[in-house]
Amino acid sequence: MLFPIRNNFRNSIEVTGLWKFKPDPNDIGEQEEWFQGFESDIDIAVPGSWNEQLEEFGLMHYVGPAWFSKSVFISRDAQNKNILLRIGSADYHAKVWINGTFVGEHHFGFIPFEFQINKFVQCGEIAQIVICVDNRLSNDSIPQGINSEQYETEHRLREETFPPARFDFTPFGGIHRPVQFLTIPLQYLDTIKVDTTYSNGSGSVSLSLSTKNIQSASAVAIIKGGSTSVTASSTITNNSSIINFALPDCHCWSPEDPFLYELTIQVQQNNQIVDEYLLSVGIREIKIDGNKLLLNGKEIYLKGFGKHEDFYVIGKGLSLPLMVKDFAMMKWINANSFRTSHYPYAEEMMFYADKKGILVIDEVPAVSLDFRHVTEKSLANHKEFIRKLIERDHNHPSVIIWALGNEPNLVGEPTYTTGKSRNYWKEVFDTARSFDSSRPLIVPNCLRAGIDDPVMELSDIVCINRYYGWYEYPGQLVKGIKVLEIEMDAIFKKYRKPMMMTEFGADTIPGFHSTSDQMFTEEYQEKLILMYIQLIRSKSYMIGEHVWNFADFRAPQNMRRVVLNMKGVFTRNRSPKQAAFLLKKIWADNTMGKV
Ligand code: GCB
Fold first, then answer.
1. Which CATH number is 216's domain given?
2. DSSP letters of 210-263?
3. Quick check: pTM over 0.90?
4. 67-71, 419-423, 486-490: lowest mean pLDDT where?
């Protein structure tokens, strides 16, 4: 599935704007055939979450099915083309009907899906599209859900949240990314996989293409950049083709100079172009050498944040102004990277990271898996998620690491390390490697899972999320840092691999101040961050520091959160807290070791 573009062969119409909306708390919509069309006075803007947008309709904490409907004109130009309906993401499950007929369903949030809809629409007429989105999660889903009984049987009453969630971000519901009608040729390019290498000034690009409905044709690729323009071609056999380029004088992609070549790929039949696709390609190589992470053969140290897709009113809906602002703030603070904690972000963001030279750790939404409830189905869903994410984001030079999950066994259940978890993770890592062996794989570990967590043995970079001085030893930074140092050294001794601190931070209320070590004050956040960074940088095996979090974000209700998780270095509305100025300084100069 290719990202939509517009050219002489491909077109797209966005179906953003206002949709008709109806919550379905009693789950009766299908039985009552709401897919034929339904009455409602509620409008919802797409993309956008229903929670804050429709708070006045009682939907702030709503978990369940909800119906969306919109009428769209399908132009006659679409005749004799493949017509697709593409949804950038619907969290977490979606069922789609057009003109009352069921088209298909998708059970993966945060990731695009599309259906071929020629047989459901009439060109030159209006089509009514109805989507039922459901944000309920289960044992089998990725992410995994939790219910009230499980809170009790797991003896977690005091940790109960509302809405129930195994993770610390609001389970926003809605259509969160653009909806588009696409027209593409009947014979078309289906997937493009770009692999690059770079070493001492010379680069290579290898393209693996797959097509649909092609009997005999050739694939022609033209790569252009600066004064370079190289063309190569090969035949398409069994709907697939491979094209290789060598670029002896290569302009590589890096955060300092995010240079992108323009790659045009054509499918040609009898000297006629039948499909064409254009994409930007950054040539770079990411590698681990001993305890170092190398980008284009040079050591790179990751400085940045775990982030969230979260903002006032829109919830998890894609907002391009917010994206531009966040990237400008990351540049302002001298960060070079972020992690898409804890799920794949909008593709628009990945393209922007390529353009701006920001490195990305791209994460699958297997957040806080509880192995007492993991099923065969969860494993299958997890593997399928990895396949979908790698297919979607493989070609982005900015994506340098895959995170296959985050903090399994958050609650520290003792059977985790002795039970089925190792086999599970082994399969997950093997699956990811079979799709992409060019990038390091990680799963950040949490304290309670312990240092025998199988993800540490399987990860290429051992990643830890630690909250000493916060959840452990609250208010006691010196003690916390001492314990952390002992633990870090013990982990390194055991695994002998590069390590990274993928989370550390403190909730901070802007305007709270103190002359002593007082949690929640701006000084405490600043001091905690400084002490962590000093420790991290004193260890030669550490390859990066990601502060938790870039900005404050909404969390499920529980007694530890005052509406938001306030560990942001920026507030939810993107004002810098005091620590932002400290980080800007530390990340600008090289005086604290590491580059
Ligand atoms: C973590 C989780 C993250 C939470 C954070 C916190 O370890 O990975 O999702 O938001 O801690 O603030 O508790």
1. 2.60.40.10
2. EEES-SSEEEEEEEEETTEEEEEEEEEBTTEEEEEEEESS---B-SSSB--EEE
3. yes
4. 419-423
